Amino acid sequence: MRRRVRFRGATSCSVSADGAMAAGRLSLACGVAAALLSSAVLAFVEDLDDTFKETRVNDIWLVDFYAPWCGYCKKLEPVWHEVGVELKSSGSPVHVGKMDATAYSGMASEFGVRGYPTIKLLKGDLAYNYKGPRTKDDIVEFANRVSGPAVRALPSKQMFDHMMKRHDVLFLYVGGESPLKEKYNDVASELIVYTYFFSASEEVLPESVTLPELPAVVVFKDGAHFTYDEYEDGSLSSWVNKERFQGYLQIDGFTLYELGETGKLVAIAVIDEKDPTEKSGRLKGLIQRVAKEYRELFNRDFQFGHMDGNDYINSLIMGEVTVPSVIILNTSNEQYFLPSEPIETMEQLVQFISGVLNGSAQAYGGDGFIQRIKRVAFDARSTIMSVFRSSPLLGCFLFGLPLGVISLMCYGICTAESDDGSDDIDALKREGLTDEEEDEEDEEEERQRAAELEGPEEGENEEDEEDLGEKDPEEKKTD
């Protein structure tokens, strides 16, 4: 029985040891797999150094210039690894890398890096800045668009239809070789960071699309097409930059920043999509109708859309905008326009927009000196309030401690000055150097000098005689 027990015990111990060994091997395998996976992920994003300038010439690179202390850079880091994995797995010719711009500041300045993080696609001698949202899909789409040819050919109707379904806004050159095509290629090389550019023959277009003459540059959007006219629309680059957005769209902070580069005024219906009301729906519908029905009148100068909530608008104008309402922003000089009365009809909205266009509407804000001071004060107050709302203790430490130190310094300086003044007065009093006493002392010194010059006085002679008369008797006997 003892042997059996010992055997069973030994068997149990051996099984336990085997289980521990198996678990250890499994843990080791998992660790190795995780390390391999981590190294594989890191392999898709290369750490670049100062040799990058010579090695990059024949390749296309998407580079993140970062600073180790930058919070936004740290937030972008996991997204950047996802971008590297996506581009590598899809067979893209784009290499993904990252460079510490503080360690290699010379090279970063060569590429025009002014802030962190900065994303650039480097293709030959060209460097394209990425200014879009920092999400994996947007960055990958940017890389695929810019790394390819500036102008892509559409050889068939099927390809044209396919691209029409994929793109809300599509620019197309139609025709053969011409000076207009050369301009189109140059504009495409410049603005490919924003949108795609295509070319096709007239046979590729649907029968419903008719062009007045060839060659032509056409934009397809909002269910219609619009042809570029050099005499009415000015430069091709300016026209493309203004037409690269849909006539009406939902606007957020980033979109508003991009719209600022078009030079257009932005007419916005400020609504609350979480709590839609009849008035909100009416204002949104009026803005949409104006964008479509009055395109010929307002399209060159205005972009139309709606914004959910008024927080962003309030921060821009440093005021309060009611919801729902209509506001027109001039992003070039920070001016804004508000209707003098609530907008209820299409006629009122058109009249308000026309007033802004002809200069009769009242403009608010601006970028003058006083407004800049207000902006600094507003931003400082907003920053302080946001810190206190998120972390009151941190706010007290960040702002209370410096204010306390400054107060103590001011108090010390003021009290030191007052003490020094009182000490000086006391010293003057002790030394008899007040103004009146100085005058009396001067007069006394003058009298003494005059007396010395005139000789001894009568009183002084009598005193001498008295001194002689008071000799001792022994002195008299001797005399």
State the shape.
extended
In whole angstroms, the N-to-C terminal distance is 154 Å
**Mean pLDDT over the residues:** 79
The proportion of residues in beta strands is: 15-25%
Main beta sheet strand tally, sense and closure: 6 strands, mixed
Count of helix runs: 19
| Rg value | 43 Å
Proportion of residues in helical segments: 55-70%
Strand order of the largest sheet: 11-13-12-14-15-16
Overview of the structural elements:
With 479 residues, this protein is α/β, with parallel strands linked by helices. Helices cover 55% and strands 16% of the residues. The strands form three sheets. The chain has a six-stranded mixed sheet with strand order 11-13-12-14-15-16, with helices on both faces. It has a five-stranded mixed sheet with strand order 1-3-2-4-5. The longest helix is centred in the N-terminal third of the chain and has 42 residues, at 2-43. The termini are far apart. Mean pLDDT is 79; it is low at 1-23, 28-42, 457-471 and 473-479.
